[in-house]
Write a structure and sequence with these properties.
By secondary structure, the chain is of the alpha/beta class. It has helices at residues 9-19, 42-51, 65-72, 88-101, 163-171; strands at 80-82, 111-113, 124-127, 139-143, 158-160. The two termini are 23 Å apart. Bound molecules: magnesium ion.
Length: 174
């Protein structure tokens, strides 16, 4: 979900930069997965992520994500698999976001909160995360981000930059 369907990093960095006086997280410089290595106060960064009550609910959708998922929903059973890090606040915010932006998703049946995403099976997995490599799902689509470009992440995975590309890829299958 994060950085695949909705943008998280800018909002999260703004929150951090507005909270700490003597550090500045510049998202445009992030090229590695672990955001904590870019800040002076990783515990503050993580605490904001897990406890801020407005962060997740207000995240902006990635361009075309909602439109493409709405269209794909006609042919696929869309499942949202996302990590709430055991935080009730994150879970609540993400669930609200899904209900608002993806109202066609059955939140009783098709929303899964877990850090063990490979436990949830599907024909096609779409994510920005490196663990996508370990998935044995048939189709693996990696949303290209600056922090997931290490060459190993290319193996067996189709890398895309936009949801329009995803739509075109999957149009060939339906
Ligand atoms: Mg993500």
């Amino acid at each position: 979900m994060d950085e695949t369907i909705c943008y998280l990093l800018d909002s999260w960095a703004n929150l951090y930069n507005n909270t700490v006086a003597n550090d500045h997280l510049d998202i445009s410089k992030v090229t590695e997965w672990d955001l904590c290595s870019y800040v002076k106060y990783p515990s503050v960064l993580m605490s904001l992520l897990l406890t801020d009550e407005n962060l997740f609910e207000n995240l902006p959708p990635v361009e075309d994500a909602v439109e493409v998922l709405t269209e794909l929903n006609k042919f696929y059973n869309i499942r949202i698999v996302t990590d709430a890090s055991g935080s009730i606040t994150v879970l609540y915010g993400k669930l609200k976001w899904i209900k608002k932006h993806l109202p066609f998703v059955d939140t009783k049946r098709d929303v899964f909160f877990t850090s063990n995403k490979n436990a949830i099976k599907g024909d096609i997995i779409i994510d920005d995360g490196p663990y996508i490599l370990e998935s044995d799902d048939q189709g693996k689509i990696l949303m290209d981000r600056r922090y997931n470009r290490t060459p190993i992440y290319h193996s067996g995975v189709i890398r895309v930059k936009t949801w329009k590309e995803i739509y075109e890829l999957l149009q060939e299958d339906v």
